[in-house]
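PROTOCOL LOG
Step 1. Enter all chains and additional molecules of the complex.
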Amino acid sequence: MNIFRQTFKDYSDEALMRAIAQRNEQAFAVLYDRYSPRMYRFFFRMLWRDAAKAEDFTQEIFLKIIEKPHQFDPERNFRTWIYTLATNLCKNEYRRPPPPDMTWDDPDLWEDTLPEKLDKELFEHHLRHCIAQLSEAHHQCFVLRYQEEMSVAEIAEIVGCPEGTVKSRLHHALRQVAGQMEGWKSEKF
Amino acid sequence: MNEKIEQLAFEKDFSDLTAEERNQVLAAMPAEAFEQLRSVLQAARQMDSGVLPPPRLKAQLLERMSGQTNPGLLWNALTARIPMWSIAATMLLGIAAGWLLKPKSVQEKIVTTIELRTDTVWQEKTVWRERVVWRERIVHPEKAADEPIAFLPEKVDSQELEIEFTQSEFSSPRVGTSLGDAPELMRFFTQGDK
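Step 2. Run joint prediction.
Step 3. Record the structure below.
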């Protein structure tokens, strides 16, 4: 009977952070399960699908939560706070030259692939290429809006600019990507 | 392409649009273009959606937190979460135990009473009766003694008191003094004056 006892899974993100600040391991485990897939996927998408870097960055961001939980303001929304940390971590990587793109000569792409699946693979491959060619600011807004499904207001808080700027960046990014994808057969995946 | 169209392409298929929304879309672009845009956005959303962090990452982080946040039994005891009902039950139990085990206190009541006591006073009265003891002693020395012989020293040296009495002394006629004749000698024989 759990009338008087509430499990950590029922806690909000901000309540979990308060518990983590008091060195509660169970609260950290719940928060990790809740946000580690999102963070890993975000870093994976932002850092050119580099799994090793995505793992390192995910570990780094949760280590910050462990070591300095008091840096989080409980009055603030945790979701936007952690994504702000994540985008700031990615900024340093964007100063380095990106890795070379996967070329059409990649044997993994052609080997034992059905035509339907090949179409999908090719479509996604080209889409990835188009998204990766966006500038850092446009890439950030595109990923946060259309892949992480965050609202314009949340994106504005994360990147630290007005909502109008975010809308403008999204419009520019989508127009560039859609223009480069024009001519590719549209399939309902 | 405006923001409204982009929002609709992100949220709905062309077939799910309302009539008004459909008119807005068709005013901006052909339906095929809307469908293409929607495909791009859907593919972007689903792309890499299945990637997950390796399980060892969670174990490493929990181990790091455990090593950093294990200040000891005392801290863990102090910060342990205790259900409210446990706290309430413990308090009630403590109050009940304290009430049952409380030592019986003796209340001293000061009562002022007036007690009548009877004292018996014994009065001793000595009635002295005059006591007179007549004693008559006849002394038969041939001559009067130099000192009265009624009192003898405590220690009597027998040699000092050795008195030789000759037969003639005892055979002589009795000559003595009667106490009746000499009342001053009475003090040697009576204790009535004490």
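Step 4. Note key features.
Chain A touches chain B through 48 residues (CB under 8 Å).
Confidence is low (pLDDT under 50) at residues 102-107 of chain A.
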